[in-house]
Amino acid sequence: MIQMSSLNSCRVYERLAETECAAEGIRPGGLALTERAVALCGFPQGSRIVDVGCGTGVTLRHLTGVHRFSAIGVDASSHLLHQACFENHDLLFVRSIAERLPFPDAFADGIFAECSLSTMNDPERALDEFQRLLKIGGKLIITDVYARNAESSGQLSCMPVECCLKGAVSRTNLLERLSCRDFRIDLWEDHSDLLTRFVVHLVFSYGSMDEFWSRMGLKSVDLNEMNRTISEAKPGYFLLIAQKTT
């Protein structure tokens, strides 16, 4: 079942969703990091969970089927949600941008944003929405790319492609954003090895990263310059759990 709101889409994720790379979700670590986060948060059965940037519904299916949570998937892409609904007839999906979620205050016990915060047009506004949506004591789970070289992170925003790398920020930047919204950081774990494995998998699947970017539609882009920008930022990957305190 799908409900509607207003939005735009993220093209790289739409293209990846059509490949075998999306079998366990379009992100490094797949469901392994999801499961680790669930175990650490200790949500009881029936907890109300919102998966923001749910894509084709891989995590949502896991949260409802394995853990018996009352979970809702949200995504901005009609393409991904139609695929999600086709594969998961019994799950609830809502088409909406994260910056304007169609739920009341203190609605959720937990929010998952798995490799999605960095793709949002206005992550500051999205974090405001997460804070509004969570109950006091509710948990925000983020897995995403970050820039280990903070000095070069600003260059990523100029990349000519809509993907998680373009919105990656430094660890310090993200923690400051959360702190000023009264989130307490319960966990930060570096999982950059999973990003490396994901990239290796893409290389094996496509032959090279240049070919991957070409398949994603970047046929007239200076890939050498783009790859240099990415390399200088030293992308890493993390799992973060934060709790709403007030």
TrEMBL record:
InterPro entries: Methyltransf_11, SAM-dependent_MTases_sf
Molecular functions (GO terms): S-adenosylmethionine-dependent methyltransferase activity
Domain Methyltransferase type, residue spans: 50-142
One example of a Gene Ontology biological process annotation: methylation
Keywords for the protein's UniProt record, in alphabetical order: Methyltransferase, Transferase, Ubiquinone
Stored Gene3D superfamilies: Vaccinia Virus protein VP39 (3.40.50.150)
Pfam families in UniProt: Methyltransf_11
Name assigned to this protein: Methylase involved in ubiquinone/menaquinone biosynthesis
Organism: Desulfomonile tiedjei (strain ATCC 49306 / DSM 6799 / DCB-1)
Species lineage: Bacteria, Pseudomonadati, Thermodesulfobacteriota, Desulfomonilia, Desulfomonilales
